[in-house]
């Protein structure tokens, strides 16, 4: 019997998991799949799968029985935050089953993350710069160029293929299933329609805003910090960030900026590329800035050239976005307010948020390269969820990491609180 019997739970809205399963079987791995909804079945068809259609309360007991009956040794799932995935991790750990969490890459573009047990604050990736340097030693230079093609239309169509069957027939087929997202898919699509109808206007406004911050030849650029926003419903915010609420975090950051940043400094917040437009960031941020007396120094850009904005910024404020890594690779000072894989001495600003506005600490010269190499050697693989070549590459490399995980990730992470929580909650 092969030592690996892999159970796959939910994945992305793409054929990625089906490709991974085929490659796993080629390596002699026994593969099992549990579907929760019709969307899962769409991207697994025509392969056979088992179903769980019970309630969340029934899920742990069902999963334990299933794992024992099938002799499961490993379980793979997209993200560690979905309620049924979080419950599955607890069951697996109790049974001594290895857990593998995958997601979009910490590095961008064209990388995927595969980690044991959890991500961000739950990651086993070391937070000691000397340990990172040791892992990086002897590894080849990092190639961060893009290898695969994808576009938003493909992403949107794949997402529709997942959600439409659930909306139309889910109430009959699996009435106990609830989407893990913060809003109903119909509400989210309404937001995207609204964004589509205003796309030209928003592009013009973004170009005008970027012109205010990026200088023309011979002109002086304004001094500013960049705050790339994440998605409010992202589990990186909900479980890996202080306050667990992006709206409160944004208000706290603007309040700190108003109280501690030099008078000639500006703060530019940038919406996430796939923000659905329902957050009302423009009105919300304007209201907070007005309240804190910095309405003339705080702006929002919905679009723009992220790399150029990072280049001209004095530093980058983030919760735990992958943009933080992009900024570090560009040798920019970064403060990470939530749990992130790159938040460590010699890399990110380790002082208070208040001190960041006046004396931002940049990374030590060798650390961006060492961090990148160490991530690639342990928890990053080439690939993507969209496009045949990206899927095949990612699936092949991911199954290799599952079968032969890095020995540099064996230590259990110590539970840690959010070190900026007290400062962010201060009135």
Write the layout of secondary structure elements.
Blueprint: E1 5-8, H1 16-26, E2 30-35, H2 38-42, E3 50-51, H3 59-70, E4 74-78, H4 83-95, E5 98-104, E6 111-116, H5 129-136, H6 152-173, H7 185-197, H8 199-213, E7 224-228, H9 235-238, H10 246-260, E8 266-270, H11 281-291, E9 298-301, H12 306-312, E10 315-318, H13 323-329, E11 334-336, H14 353-356, H15 367-378, E12 380-382, H16 388-403, H17 421-425
Largest beta-sheet characterization? 7 strands, mixed
Name of the level-1 CATH class of the largest domain: Alpha Beta
**How many separate domains make up the residues?**
2
* Residue runs with pLDDT of under 50 for 5 or more positions: none
Number of strands: 12
Which strand order do you get reading across the main beta sheet?
Answer: 3-2-1-4-5-6-12
| % residues in beta strands | 5-15%
Query: How would the global form be characterised?
Result: globular
Q: What letter string, H or E per element, gives the SSE order?
A: EHEHEHEHEEHHHHEHHEHEHEHEHHEHH
């Amino acid at each position: 019997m092969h030592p690996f019997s892999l159970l796959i739970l939910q994945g992305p809205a793409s054929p990625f998991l089906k490709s991974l399963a085929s490659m796993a079987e080629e390596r002699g791995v026994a593969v099992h799949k549990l579907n929760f909804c019709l969307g899962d079945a769409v991207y697994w068809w025509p392969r056979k799968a088992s179903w769980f259609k019970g309630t969340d309360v029934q899920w742990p007991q069902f999963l334990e029985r299933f794992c024992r009956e099938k002799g499961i040794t490993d379980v793979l799932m997209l993200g560690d935050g979905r309620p049924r995935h979080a419950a599955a991790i607890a069951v697996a750990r109790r049974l001594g089953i290895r857990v593998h969490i995958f997601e979009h890459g910490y590095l961008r573009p064209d990388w995927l993350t595969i980690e044991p047990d959890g991500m961000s604050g739950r990651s086993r990736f070391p937070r000691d710069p000397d340990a990172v340097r040791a892992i990086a030693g002897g590894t080849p230079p990092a190639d961060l160029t893009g290898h695969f093609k994808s576009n938003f239309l493909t992403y949107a169509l794949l997402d529709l293929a997942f959600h439409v069957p659930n909306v139309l027939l889910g109430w009959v087929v699996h009435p106990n299933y609830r989407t893990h997202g913060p809003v109903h898919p119909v509400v989210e699509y309404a937001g995207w329609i609204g964004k589509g109808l205003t796309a030209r206007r928003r592009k013009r406004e973004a170009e005008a805003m970027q012109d205010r911050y990026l200088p023309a030849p011979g002109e002086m650029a304004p001094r500013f910090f960049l705050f790339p926003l994440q998605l409010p419903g992202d589990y990186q915010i909900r479980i890996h960030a202080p306050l667990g609420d992006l709206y409160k975090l944004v208000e706290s950051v603007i309040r700190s900026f108003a109280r501690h940043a030099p008078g000639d400094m500006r703060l530019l917040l940038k919406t996430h590329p796939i923000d659905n437009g329902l957050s009302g960031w423009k009105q919300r941020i304007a209201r907070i800035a007005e309240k804190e007396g910095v309405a003339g120094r705080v702006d929002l850009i919905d679009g723009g050239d992220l790399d150029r904005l990072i280049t001209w910024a004095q530093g980058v404020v983030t919760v735990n976005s992958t943009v933080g890594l992009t900024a570090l690779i560009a040798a920019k000072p970064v403060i990470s307010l939530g749990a992130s894989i790159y938040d460590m001495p010699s890399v990110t600003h380790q002082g208070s948020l208040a001190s960041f506005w006046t004396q931002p600490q940049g990374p030590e010269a060798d650390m961006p390269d060492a961090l990148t190499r160490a991530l690639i050697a342990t928890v990053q693989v080439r690939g993507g969820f969209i496009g045949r070549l990206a899927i095949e590459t990612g699936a092949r490399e991911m199954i290799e990491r599952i079968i032969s995980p890095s020995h540099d990730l064996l230590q259990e992470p110590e539970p840690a609180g959010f070190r900026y929580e007290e400062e962010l909650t201060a009135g």
